[in-house]
Amino acid sequence: MIVLVIGVTAVVVIALLAIYIMKTYNSFITLGERVRNAKAQITTQIESRFDAVKSLIEATKKYEKYESETLEEIIGQRVGITQDTSIEKMKQENDQLNNIVGRLIAISESYPKLKASDVYVKTMDNIDTYENNVRHARMIYNDVVTKFNRMVRMFPSNMIASAFQFTQKEYYKGTDSKQDVPSWD
């Protein structure tokens, strides 16, 4: 009788352990996919912002040929970002875009007709909206990364993370060269 109780207890403990391992593993997979999705959202917003800047460059062409050619060249050098792009490369691309936006604002100061044009105003509004979307996407990304990294580090889920080679994800950190969103003032 005691052997039977010990056997049943062992089976129950093993079953509970197996359930815990599966649940924790699936949580890692779910959070990992959320990290990938959040990173993809950042990518999408940065790409949309680049498209808006391209539109602004088109509007700028008729006002200053040299400046628009220079800006187009910089845009053309952009490698592009995807869901698999490193966080560091995403920051570099975004910093480059911020520099372009800054130059466009400087150009517009020299051309009051450009600054007053509907295309310019609407495009700058779009750029501002996309920058806010990028900021929001970064916050979501970092929140999901925090949850994932916490699971990787906390006991007992850290043992499962180690067994299945789940490692901490990189946070999206701000840069010193980051410029503010364009201002109308």
What does the model show?
There is one protein chain. With 185 residues, the chain is mainly α. The chain has one domain: de novo design (two linked rop proteins) (Up-down Bundle), CATH 1.20.1440.20. Helices cover 78% and strands 0% of the residues. The chain has helices at 2-61, 65-77, 87-110, 112-116, 118-153, 157-163. Helix 1 packs antiparallel against helix 2 (65-77), helix 1 (2-61) runs antiparallel to helix 5 and helix 2 (65-77) packs antiparallel against helix 3. The radius of gyration is 25 Å and the shape is rod-shaped. Residues 177-185 have low confidence and may be disordered.
Q: What would you call the shape?
A: rod-shaped
**Any low-confidence stretches, pLDDT <50, length ≥5?**
177-185
What is the CATH topology assignment?
Answer: de novo design (two linked rop proteins)
Largest sheet: none
Separation of the first and last Cα atoms:
84 Å
What structural class do you assign from the helix and strand content?
Answer: mainly alpha
Number of domains: 1
* Helix and strand sequence: HHHHHH
Average pLDDT metric: 82
Number of helices: 6
Number of beta strands? 0
Radius of gyration: 25 Å
Identify the CATH homologous superfamily. LemA-like domain
What is the architecture at the second tier of CATH? Up-down Bundle
Helix content: over 70%
Under CATH at level 1, the class stands as Mainly Alpha
The fraction of residues in strands falls at: under 5%
Summarize the model shown.
The chain has six helices and no strands.
